[in-house]
Amino acid sequence: MQDLPRQLGPYQLVRKLGSGGMAQVHLALAFGASGFEKKVAIKSLLPEFRGHGELQRLLITEACLHARLEHRNLVGVHDLGVADGAYYVRMDFVDGGDLASMMKFGRPSVSLAIYIAEEAALALNYVHTFLDDRGRPLGLVHRDVSPSNILLSRAGEVKLADFGVAKATRLADATGARVRKGKYAYMSPEQIAGDALTHQSDQFGLGVTIMEMIVGYRPFDGNTVLETMERIRECTPPNLDGVTPELQTIIRRCLERRPKNRYPSALALRQALMSLRSKFLAVGPPELQDYVLAAAVEGPSIADEKTQV
Prior knowledge:
alpha+beta, Phosphorylase Kinase, domain 1, Transferase(Phosphotransferase), domain 1, 6-stranded antiparallel sheet, 11 strands
């Protein structure tokens, strides 16, 4: 199949921002009366998957679910449409880049890394505690918390992206726990084993991300995917020499093999991070903005490396 046209429904496509397992995201322009113009992100299935019934249903389910979520640390979803046989989702355009791309040009300071993790944990707490229209917990689990899904904006914002693999335990059509999606290095032992996932499963991916920001490498990387998976199953405590004891405690607790031994909630994890950050230099959106802008200077193409998928 050919790639998307330059015009998709009411949106003018500008350039591709990134692509993932089944979808791609383009920067696009939305127009309105009297010269109104706004940058947006348009997500659609990759050309080879267009017309695939099951994947279209996943995209539609994701869009309908994500559109109900409104939080300052989430990438917002605002429209679902179909044009020229292609379903598409309109999302916020985050002007910046993903954490994985930025770390290629330098890791954040310890205090800034803690702040980024705090904001991601706040987003996860909102997702995990989201209620349906009857006030019942929907049971959402992100399932793919990793640096490529943590977007950092030039305005100093932290946005959690990619709910394409999110699982709502109350949704009958949600992908089963035995479908191994996401990035292996950030998967929890229960996800590798194909066991049921809980909100504490997302803490594991965030713990791996925190360690990568602090020391520059992931705790369970092997030479092959199978070796990485086996190391995650064993879940041997990582070497954190040189890391402050309080931060070691947080990382090790996130990386506990048994979910029940991790933090009781993402909010509890955030509170632990906030308490620790109070011992470092104060940082916030201005310092994050400086980090993003510095990465953009080091790698001018970073704006094209946002995944948002």
